[in-house]
Each structure stands twice: as structure tokens, then as C-alpha cells.
Amino acid sequence: MNNTSPYPNLLAPLDLGFTKIANRSLMGSMHTGLEEEKEGFKKLAAFYEARAKGGVGLIVTGGISPNTRGRLAPFAGEMSKFWHVKKHRLITDAVHKYDTKICMQILHAGRYSYHPFSVAPSKLKAPINPFTPSALSARQIRGTIKDFAYSASLAAKAGYDGVEIMGSEGYLINQFSCAQTNKRTDEWGGPIENRMRLATEIVKAVRAKVGEKFIIIFRLSMLDFVEGGNSWDEVVQMGKAIEAAGATIINTGIGWHEARVPTIATSVPRAAFTWITERMKSEIKIPLVTTNRINTPEVAEEVLAAGHADMVSMARPFLADESFMNKAAENKSGDINTCIGCNQACLDHVFQQKRASCLVNPTACYETELTFAKAAKGKHIAVVGAGPAGLAFSAYAAQRGHKVEIFDRASEIGGQFNFAKQVPGKEEFYETLRYFNNQLSQLKVKVHLNSEQTLEQLKAANFDEVVVATGITPRELDIQGIRHPKVKTYLQVLRDKEVIGRKVAIIGAGGIGFDVASYLSEKESLTTNPEAWMQEWGVDKQYQSGGALLKARTEPAESEREIYLLQRKTTKVGAGLGKTTGWIHRAFLQKKGVQMIPGASYKAITDDGLVIDIDGKQQTLDVDHVIICAGQEPNRSLYQQLEDAGIKTHLIGGADVAAELDAKRAIRQGAELAATI
Predict the structure, then answer these.
(1) Residue positions annotated with a catalytic role
(2) What is the value of pTM for the model shown?
């Protein structure tokens, strides 16, 4: 092993006997939405090529079904006919320009298929799907095994180095392996020997079809996190049987999609689940891959050096930075655009049938569309406001050769990110600010802090163009007593650190309201305390029960405060939060005893507290403070002055649209303007 390497374990090759993987990084499977778009495979090829060029050792594609009934959605990807091979060739040819291997993931969704022709081991509807599946007949099961093998042979024809068989996350094979979803009484149900038969027969059939010199990864659910999930002994028995059936590598699967334990959100501690892969290592001889919330080369190296696994799977970190591995190899970790685990542009988009991208990297999945060629003529550009929109614009515009100066009245860059990073579970925002600080320095962007700009100053400096990214101002509410000393804005809480009493009412239950409630209800962040986090979310590290779940706690955890989170809307509190993370925020606050109140009409703020009306009944909440988190207004006054003065000006970020603080939109808008200016 090369001990001069900055990350000797991560950068070491992995010899599989018949082939060698350049390093220990696996780009985990992610559905992008490009699989279904017109000309999508050309874009997918560019997407994967960028990651191969960036140094990834082994790529696994998004899930491709082996037959029509197993598709995730009506028009989702399928590899079952010879004419499917040609478009996949675009991907493998692009990746193989570099020393990177690529495997196609074969995924049969089972009862997670979002269409009326779904099938499963038993006729049991998933709680996250409106469609009830049909139970597979024994004949259909045998047909499905053949479909997996044929799909793998087509993948080989398309130039893939192997396949990953998706056996976790609650999809079909996982549904068969768990008694919770498999109620069959034939040879495919009952004891674990029968329930795991589908998995072992698929691996055997694939191996027989593709020969020995082809990678077969099996994604094994090591922690189901559902009631009635498998016991540790059953997981081990299945892992050994998969190994014996001919798998090359076993990848760790964590949690079903219907599980009530967060597994990949930003509030999950880094490398939170590598202990389960380490436990499996003493049972299995073939290489093991560990996964989930590994987002820096330092964390990956630590996991590998500790012997927890032979490879690390990182999916979204390669969305955030396609050159992650090359930067690690060059010992430039500080230049990596780190995944913050927000899910906002990746998973949330996919669940809404939109193309995936990345909040911190808007070029992800837009490699052929959002590009930054050198500008024909360099311009001298002022950017006013160093929040996410201003930072993104400045970095990309400087990359194109423009001379950029960025101004902010605050003493540090980041805008609203500086408040978000203080919220428990959002510590990853520090990484984004570190990345932008480095980018501005390397790209020679002049940064002027503590520097509020006026029309006269900008006019005198004679810039070619001005970009206004001045963000938002909190909205003033028309409530009797709004100037009462009890009233505070979220900025006074998060930015100014004003002392807040034990009893608090928060007006506004959008993202900011939830952030303030989290900030005020948690003494210390569990994100940096994995053991306490496991206890909080009911993870049984001793694996005493199936699914590795502790008995659910009914009493709320101790909180320093009594908090009311109120909204005017009568819909569920937090309904507008991210599709894949909103439930986590709601569950966390419920655990802390936060009272969430919809349909509240605000009457007055008095010495006695907050007077509200719900369904015609008036009541007073006895609180020490009322915190306003009820929306924002765009801060556009400077923009208007510049426009009126005839200076060429652009408006981006919250200053343009301030409906909700939206860093994803702000960064994308900054990048898009930089690409065309």
C-alpha cells in the first residue's frame, strides 16, 4: 500500500481476481429521472462520464427493472429486450474512457411499484403506495428469476462490468426475505430458508448466465428498521447463502423506504451505520461495501482504516462534486463541494417525477446544458450580497473569466446559511461555506465584508454590470401588540442570540419555524453524538429484535422549553416541508413535546401572552416570547435605484423571489446567470 497517499485505504485498488477496481469508492445507485427523459441517455452518459473522469472506482447506475411489472413507475427504465442494449452502450462507452468500472442495478420494485400492475410475495399494500399488488404465483416467481438473469446478460452485452442486484430498501427481494411482507405458505415463504430463496436463486441464475468474470454485487438489507424485519441471525444466514450462490461483493442496505428511522438526511450522524457492515465482516469472506452519510474523504478513510468495510458507497457526495476522488488523491479535500444531505434537489425531485440535481451543485444531471465556457469578453462585475445566490454567481462567473467583486454588509459570507448552520442537524452548512470561501480565494474574487453598498458607491466604481443578491427582510405582521417586548424575529434568535424564555410561541410553521423550534428545543445536537442519536430514533445496536428496532417511546423527551408551533393554514403542520425529510422534522419536534397547532388566527400579543382563535374559540397561550417566522419580503430597494439610474443590473436569489428561503433555487439562479452573462 502507498503510505505517501493522503488517504491510503480509500485510494488503494481492490483486486477481485478477474478484474481490479482502481480505488475503494463506489458511487451508489441514484435514480436521476434522465432514464425516462427524451435524449436522456445522452445526458446520463455525460453525467456518469464526469464522475468517471473525476476518479470514482466503481459506479452503480439507478435502478433498472428486469421486466414491466417490476418498473418503479409506468415509464421507468427497463432492461428486458435486445433493443434496450444500444442506449446503455452510450453510458458504458463514456465511462470506460477512464479507469472506472460500472455496474447496472437491477431493481424489481415489487409492492413499491407506482402502477396498478405491481406484484409482490403477498397481496399486501405498502403504506407509501396507493396501489395494492397481486401476489406472484410460483410460476411467475420462476419467470422473474429468469428475467433477472436475462437482464444481467443484456447488461453484459451493453458493456457493463457487472450488475448490482437490489435486495434491500423494501423492494421485491427484500419483501420476500421478510416475514412482515411475505405471508406465503409454499416453498417461497415461511422459514428464512424459503424467504431468502428468491435472492439466492436470482444470484445463481445470473452467475450461470454471465459467467465467472462479471461483477455481481448483491445489496443486502442489514438493518430493515421495520416491525417484523429480519433478525441478525437471519441476515447473516442470507448473506452467507448469497456469497455461496456466486456474488462478488455484498453492499450494505439500510432501512426500508417506509421505515421511521432517518437513514440519509443531514441530521443523521456521519457514517452512522458502518458498525453493521463491520459486524458482517466476521461472517463473510467476499468484499463488503458500507454506506450512508459518508461525505468526506476523511470519514471514508477512517471507516476503511478501522476495518469496517472493504469499500465505501457514496451516492449524493458524487452529485455534489464529480471530482471528489481526484481532489482526495491530490490532497485537496478543502476544495470538495461537500454533500449536505439535504435531499432537496435529489430525492425530493425524484419523488416528484422531476429530474434530480443537487442544491450545492446545480450542474449535476445538467452536464450538457449548464456549462461555463470562457466568456468572449471579460467584464468587471459587482455582486451585492454574499448569500447562496451571490456566492454561486461569483464563483461561476469568475470561472468564466469575469473580474468579480462581491460585497456584503455582514462580517462573513453566507447570508441565511449562517443562521441555518446553527440549527441542530444542519451542521453540514459549514462545509458549503468553507467550499465557497476557498473558491472565491482561488478564483481571485475580491471579497468586501462589512461593506454595505449605495447607488453612489456602485456608480462611482464604474462596474460593467451589477448583480443584486441582497436577500430578504422578515415580513412584518399586522397583529395587535406586534411591538410588544415579548416579540422577537427569527433573526434575533439565530443571528443575535437574544435570550429566549422557557415558554415560546412560534408564528409560522414553514422551514424557518421548524428550524427555530429545533434550535430552541435541543440542548446539544445529536448529529455529533451517534450513540444518543440511535437511542433517540430507536435503533437497537444489540439487534435483540427483528428489524433492529427498540420499543417505541411514548413519552416526549425532556426539553428545555414548552414550545407552540402555529400556522394559519388548517393543513397538517409541516405539510410544505421536503417530501423525504419533512416527516423527520415533524417526528423530531413531536419527540421533544412541541405542540403543533394548525388553523390559528392571531388576535393579539399582550402581557399575558399570545391570544389566538381556533374554530371560533379564543384562548391565550401563556408564553414568555412570541417568535415571528411568518415569511419574508424581497429586499429590492438597491435594485430599483440601480435600474432607475440606468445601470445594467440583475436580480437573483431571495431579493428576486422570497416566498420561502430557498437555497436550491438561489444557487441555481446564480449559476444560470453566470453561464450567460
Answers:
(1) 171
(2) 0.94
